[in-house]
Design brief:
Blueprint lengths: L1 H33 L5 H9 L2 H4 L4 H29 L7 H26 L3 H24 L7 H18 L3
Helix pairs in contact: 1-2, 4-5, 4-7, 5-6, 6-7
Length: 175
């Protein structure tokens, strides 16, 4: 009898894991087909590496998890820029652009937090507006360096952040 219960528990666990993986892959596939900027492989890898995403049972759950993931990445990139500023390890003339980036990351986090509240209240239209606002911030940060003919020290991080924000935006547009 104990063996039977154990087999059933293992089966249910594996089934839940397979269901989450299918949800992630199917959602990323649909989103990437609708938005050419979204990279399917990045979407799948990003979500499969996130425990909250792996436990999601619906597209709404994936939106919440991926928005949290994007907010975490935004905080991480902001910390990198703050460290660069603190250590004064930046090319001449780029300090104003770096300071602007810090403000933009704060704006992005505020927008992501508003989007989370919107999704929780099933206001997907407002969530999409806030996610779109957050999506603009990494590019605006990069533009600040281009205007000064400087090189951004966080270009790669901003590319990743763009993708991390694009995932919940694309998913929200599917709800």
């Amino acid at each position: 009898m104990k063996f039977f219960v154990l087999v059933v528990i293992i089966f249910l666990f594996l089934n839940c894991f397979a269901t989450a993986q299918t949800l992630i892959r199917d959602s990323c596939k649909t989103a990437a087909a609708k938005d050419p900027n979204l990279k399917y492989d990045f979407c799948v890898q990003s979500l499969e590496a996130d425990p909250q995403s792996k436990s999601a049972t619906s597209l709404t759950g994936l939106v919440l998890a991926s928005t949290n993931n994007a907010a975490s990445k935004t905080t991480n990139v902001k910390g990198i820029v703050e460290t660069i500023l603190k250590n004064k390890k930046y090319p001449p003339g780029t300090e104003p652009a770096l300071r602007t980036c810090v403000k933009l990351y704060d704006d992005a986090n505020n927008s992501l937090n508003k989007a989370l509240m919107n999704v929780k209240s099933c206001d997907y239209r407002s969530a999409s507006v806030h996610l779109s606002a957050a999506l603009d911030d990494p590019g605006t940060c990069e533009d600040g360096f281009k205007e000064k003919h400087g090189i951004s020290p966080v270009t790669n991080e901003n590319k990743v952040l763009f993708q991390k924000i694009l995932i919940p935006l694309s998913f929200t547009n599917m709800l």
